[in-house]
Design brief:
- The chain has 216 residues and is α/β, with parallel strands linked by helices.
- It has a single domain, classed as 3-Layer(aba) Sandwich (Rossmann fold), CATH 3.40.50.150.
- Helix content is 28%, strand content 30%.
- The chain is built from six helices and ten strands.
- α5 links the parallel β4 and β5.
- The termini are far apart.
- The structure holds S-adenosylmethionine.
- The site of S-adenosylmethionine (SAM) has 18 residues, from α1 and α3.
Length: 216
């Protein structure tokens, strides 16, 4: 069994975006609703998308943003991103989210899609603080992540919790290879508490499948 998140996502890169196109009207509605408000948020802004993955959100943001820097630890993911067409200036930075290579005060918006659930709980305040330093005055951070949908249980099996409260799951690639990853889910109250410690929450949406937050 492997614990390597970078390898897990690199190997999933060609198929990763299937998660956005599941045959489920409620999911589609939630994702599309979030996308609409995200477009408004990034209008004429300089954006950091981290970790950018295959650039699903980047493509949406590029319809309105001035510029987007896509950063990810996986070159395979960034290569998927580069296959897309964007409507604004784009740059690509291979980097670990734990060692951010960006100058302070250089982004208006930071977009963080489906990462909070993978980041060790005890390290989230440090991550939030490091990300905040990259924002210009009045800059905002946007987050989206999963609520626990029963439909996902076929690809992941619960292993257990550590003493910090992190939940570990087994995930299987199509070739049967097993990986162990952190996947933490939050109640609405937990989302509120988590972000209130480091940010002023501007909006919080808690749906059936996804939660999203805009904070500054
Ligand atoms: C769940 S995906 C999210 C991708 C994208 N934000 C989205 O919403 O579709 C997690 C991403 O984190 C990347 N990743 C894994 N470990 C990382 C790290 N330490 N630093 C930066 N990116 C990392 C993976 O390559 C993958 O693209």
């Amino acid at each position: 069994m492997k614990h390597n998140m970078k390898e897990y996502y690199s190997r999933r890169a060609p198929d990763y975006e299937k998660i956005y196109y599941r045959d489920d009207e409620v999911r589609r509605k939630e994702i599309d609703g979030v996308a609409e408000s995200l477009k408004e948020l990034v209008t004429e802004k300089d954006v950091l998308d981290i970790p950018a993955g295959t650039g699903y959100w980047m493509e949406i943001m590029s319809q309105k943003a001035s510029s987007i820097v896509a950063s990810d630890l996986s070159i395979e993911m960034l290569n998927e991103t580069k296959k897309k067409r964007f409507n604004c200036q784009t740059d690509y930075v291979l980097a670990n989210i734990n060692q951010l290579p960006f100058a302070k005060n250089c982004f208006d918006i930071i977009a963080v899609g489906f990462w909070v659930s993978h980041h060790p709980l005890q390290d989230l305040p440090e991550l939030f603080s490091n990300l905040k330093k990259l924002l210009r005055p009045n800059g905002k951070i946007w987050f989206i992540d999963n609520n626990p949908p029963p439909a996902e249980f076929h690809i992941e099996k619960l292993i257990g919790k550590d003493e910090q409260g992190n939940v570990y799951k087994k995930r299987f690639l199509d070739d049967g290879q097993e990986y162990t990853i952190i996947k933490n889910y939050f109640t609405e109250k937990e989302v509120k508490n988590l972000f209130s410690i480091s940010f002023k929450i501007e909006s919080l949406t808690y749906g059936k499948y996804y939660w999203s937050v805009v904070a500054g």
